[in-house]
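Figure 2 data, in text form.
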Amino acid sequence: MPELSRTQVVVYGAVAVALLLVGARAIRAEEGGRSFAVEAGAEAAGTGGFSVSSSAGDVVVDVTGAVRRPGVYRMPAGARVIDAIERAGGAAGDAALEGINRAARLADGQQVVVPESGPAGAVVAGAAGGEGPISLGTATAEQLEEIDGIGPVTAGKIVEYRDQHGGLASVDQLDEVSGIGPATMESLRARLQP
């Protein structure tokens, strides 16, 4: 076998490095199709340009309301609402933590709304006028009855189910409550959050 000259070794080395770079770039491009970055508005949300990338098993949640740094955060699978609140800098001074189920598991795409204390210590939950999602973790039967498709009996069953199971980690768990079928589930998804 003939010996390679110094020039040939350098050329072969450069080709090998080029192939490695092209391969690494192809791998990165392939991974880019399976993950995403949330950067728009991150600085405005007080996260200092924090980039959120989703990887297998992680969940991405929007933490808003009475927290120090509202924003969109990537959390490990199995994380709880309290973990998301702490990731957002902790509860603000006017937070009414008793108005949210801090032990509920996070779901991908979930919005965690930390309510504020209102006058005389009342919990101010979400937007006024019944707009926005209702928290399954804190809603009373009367609040649930305001949603189309939920009457007094079903609202009572939801509250009872929630109390027996230590809360609801997902709106999808409502499928286990008798009286709620697939058609009702679809109409409830936009109005409810864990």
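Caption note: The chain has five helices and nine strands.
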